[in-house]
């Protein structure tokens, strides 16, 4: 039986960012240095495949520091942690390594700097997401207020409208955030903040690549996990920019083949925490059913790399 033809647009950049790469390396190097088990507070990055692979190497994942013994090393996930977490680890004299992405740490420092200058902070982020919890947790309760939508901006109850600054989560939708920042600036003209927002290079580039391909594809598959903020944003970007069917898949077994019936073009991308091996798996599954021609849609080149903390570069 002849397979129907399918043009596959492959987004570039896609998949692992420098912060994810570094965080995974930190866990692997910690196991090499101190032996198993090494505890990890929260999924090191939001991907079950990555987490399961590290579990096989000797990592133990917990949600709370209180679930770690005093005498084993603990790694904090790439999303960042409230100040109280390293403080508690220090008080228990634990060995800990912070795998917070340097671009998330930069936002932490920004928030602290504004607070030291007497400003109250408004964070644009998703309620309950570990990065939001971590960034808000850099300062005492009440010093950072959360807004998630343009609607929230009208309701936020600030201490002094002339003494405000904003920071953002790094993985937000560029377009939504632009609107929220504009609403903040309209209501609080004196508000200080970054040049645009704190969305990182990887989030920006992955969204741009999807935007470039969305008008020409019948369907978009985003390889990523349901708890991965940046991956979910890629699905939204596809849907909002002209793609009739945009779906998140963790791996090939998640593909809804009935939804892809009759398509002649498809876009594939992957969130910053999704390994390339899962992209390959999805493409292989498409090749089983279609006569696939791959075209790469490259909208940016990335060559950013972050060093692992010094403690892991030194011999045990
Ligand atoms: O949910 P998310 O997009 O923030 O995290 P994920 O682990 O999927 O991707 C890496 C992004 C990080 C660590 C936040 F910047
Ligand atoms: Fe860092 Fe951006 Fe990757 Fe988050 S998505 S880990 S901020 S590089």
From TrEMBL:
NCBIfam families listed in its UniProt record: ispH_lytB, PRK01045.1-2, PRK01045.1-4
Record keyword Translocase present: no
What is the name of this protein?
4-hydroxy-3-methylbut-2-enyl diphosphate reductase
Q: Which residues bind isopentenyl diphosphate?
A: 46, 79, 129, 228-230, 273
Q: Which reaction(s) does its UniProt entry say it catalyses?
A: isopentenyl diphosphate + 2 oxidized [2Fe-2S]-[ferredoxin] + H2O = (2E)-4-hydroxy-3-methylbut-2-enyl diphosphate + 2 reduced [2Fe-2S]-[ferredoxin] + 2 H(+); dimethylallyl diphosphate + 2 oxidized [2Fe-2S]-[ferredoxin] + H2O = (2E)-4-hydroxy-3-methylbut-2-enyl diphosphate + 2 reduced [2Fe-2S]-[ferredoxin] + 2 H(+)
Q: What does the record give under GO molecular function?
A: 4 iron, 4 sulfur cluster binding; 4-hydroxy-3-methylbut-2-enyl diphosphate reductase activity; metal ion binding
- Cofactor binding remark: Binds 1 [4Fe-4S] cluster per subunit.
Q: Which residues form the active site?
A: 131 (proton donor)
As for what it does, the entry says: Catalyzes the conversion of 1-hydroxy-2-methyl-2-(E)-butenyl 4-diphosphate (HMBPP) into a mixture of isopentenyl diphosphate (IPP) and dimethylallyl diphosphate (DMAPP). Acts in the terminal step of the DOXP/MEP pathway for isoprenoid precursor biosynthesis.
Q: Which family does it belong to?
A: Belongs to the IspH family.
Give me the residues that bind [4Fe-4S] cluster, please.
17, 101, 200
Instruction: Tell me if Metal-binding is a UniProt keyword of this record.
Output: yes
Q: Which cofactor does it need?
A: [4Fe-4S] cluster
Q: Where is (2E)-4-hydroxy-3-methylbut-2-enyl diphosphate bound in this sequence?
A: 46, 79, 129, 170, 228-230, 273
Biological process GO annotation list? dimethylallyl diphosphate biosynthetic process; isopentenyl diphosphate biosynthetic process, methylerythritol 4-phosphate pathway; terpenoid biosynthetic process
Superkingdom per UniProt: Bacteria
| Keywords carried by this UniProt record | 4Fe-4S, Iron, Iron-sulfur, Isoprene biosynthesis, Metal-binding, Oxidoreductase
Pathway annotation from the record: Isoprenoid biosynthesis; dimethylallyl diphosphate biosynthesis; dimethylallyl diphosphate from (2E)-4-hydroxy-3-methylbutenyl diphosphate: step 1/1; Isoprenoid biosynthesis; isopentenyl diphosphate biosynthesis via DXP pathway; isopentenyl diphosphate from 1-deoxy-D-xylulose 5-phosphate: step 6/6
């Amino acid at each position: 039986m002849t397979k129907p033809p399918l043009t596959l647009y492959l987004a570039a950049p896609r998949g692992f960012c420098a912060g994810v790469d570094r965080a995974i390396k930190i866990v692997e190097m910690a196991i090499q240095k101190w032996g198993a088990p090494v505890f990890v507070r929260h999924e090191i990055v939001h991907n079950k495949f990555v987490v399961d692979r590290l579990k096989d190497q000797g990592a133990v994942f917990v949600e709370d520091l209180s679930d770690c013994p005093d005498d084993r090393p603990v790694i904090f996930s790439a999303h960042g942690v409230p100040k109280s977490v390293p403080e508690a680890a220090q008080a228990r004299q634990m060995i800990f390594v912070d795998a917070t992405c340097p671009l998330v740490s930069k936002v932490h420092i920004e928030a602290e700097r504004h607070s030291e200058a007497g400003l109250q902070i408004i964070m644009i982020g998703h309620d309950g997401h570990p990065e939001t919890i971590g960034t808000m947790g850099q300062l005492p309760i009440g010093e950072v207020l959360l807004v998630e939508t343009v609607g929230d901006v009208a309701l936020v109850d600030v201490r002094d409208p002339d003494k405000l600054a904003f920071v953002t989560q790094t993985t937000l939708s560029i377009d939504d955030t632009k609107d929220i920042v504009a609403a903040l600036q309209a209501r609080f003209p004196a508000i200080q903040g970054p040049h645009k927002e704190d969305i990182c290079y990887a989030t920006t580039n992955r969204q741009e690549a999807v935007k470039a391909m969305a008008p020409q594809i019948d369907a978009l598959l985003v390889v990523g996990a349901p708890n991965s903020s940046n991956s979910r944003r890629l699905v939204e970007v596809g849907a909002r920019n002209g793609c009739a069917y945009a779906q998140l898949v963790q791996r090939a077994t998640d593909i809804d083949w009935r939804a892809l019936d009759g398509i002649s073009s498809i876009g594939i991308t992957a969130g910053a925490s999704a390994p390339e091996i899962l992209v390959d798996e999805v493409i292989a599954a498409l090749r089983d059913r279609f006569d696939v021609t791959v075209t790469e849609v490259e909208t940016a080149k990335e060559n950013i790399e972050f060093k692992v903390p010094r403690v892991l570069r030194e011999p045990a």
